[in-house]
Amino acid sequence: MAKLTKKAKSLAHLDADKLYGVDEALKTIKELATAKFDETIEVALNLGVDPRHADQMVRGMVSLPAGTGKEMKVAVFARADKAAAATAAGADKVGAEDLMEDMLAGNLDYDRVIATPDMMGIVGRLGKTLGPKGLMPNPKLGTVTMDVAEAVKAAKAGQVEFRVEKQGIIHSGIGKKSFSDADLRKNFDALVDAVIKSKPSGSKGKYLRKVAISSSMGPGLKVNLADVAGA
User: Fold this and answer.
1) Domain map of the chain by residue range?
2) Could you tell me the pTM of the whole model?
């Protein structure tokens, strides 16, 4: 009979129905994240919304205080001085028609796409390319802006987008296994606070219904809502 791995032994003792405090869940998930790479710590928020209705859509941006632990690749549609400002701020690719053609050719290895308002005529032609990937610039998210330099800096510093899925769930990474427990907790609190503040007018009844924390390759642990600020 094969010997159980350390992780398998740990999993065998997990109580699937237990509700964990946030700090305990983060600590346990880190202990179970035994992959050879720096696993992402992820949060799933189950909301009392039906995103098929426009007044129940939940979407926004949040700056994670401790960053994401991931190098964000940013593309910017801009010309002249705005293009220069985006480049100086650290954008990975800046352009106009040339950038559009590059993306149409399939070069879409970006985490964020930003554009100045006057470039939306060009960007609009990429709707079917960027839309399905959630990369379409949006003024409500601050990715259509004249201040492209600030938008690039925010993306690079750990600003992430959250968006509710069809099942009413938001999934978001809050850092890496290598982060300290304190930094993961700060990022967790920032994400939850931003989602709660984004409660849509059409949401009736209890808004934040379930919370779970997991790692890239690990199990999900249920979190006690009594330990979640604002829940």
Assistant:
1) 15-67+159-227, 74-157
2) 0.83
Summarised one tens digit per residue, pLDDT across range 181-191 is 999 999 999 99
Mean pLDDT of the chain, nearest integer: 91
CB 32 within 8 A of CB 9: no
CATH number of 74-157: 3.40.50.790
Residues 68-109: pLDDT tens digits?
998 999 999 999 999 999 999 999 999 999 999 999 999 999
Cα–Cα distance measured from residue 114 to residue 80, given in angstroms and rounded to the nearest whole number: 15
Closest CA to 41 of 77, 68, 73, 79: 68
Q: Which fold has domain 15-67+159-227?
A: Ribulose 1,5 Bisphosphate Carboxylase/Oxygenase (3.30.190)
Which is nearest to 167 in space by CA: 50, 16, 24, 45? 50
Determine what percent of the chain falls in helix, strand and coil, rounding each to the nearest 5: 40, 20, 40
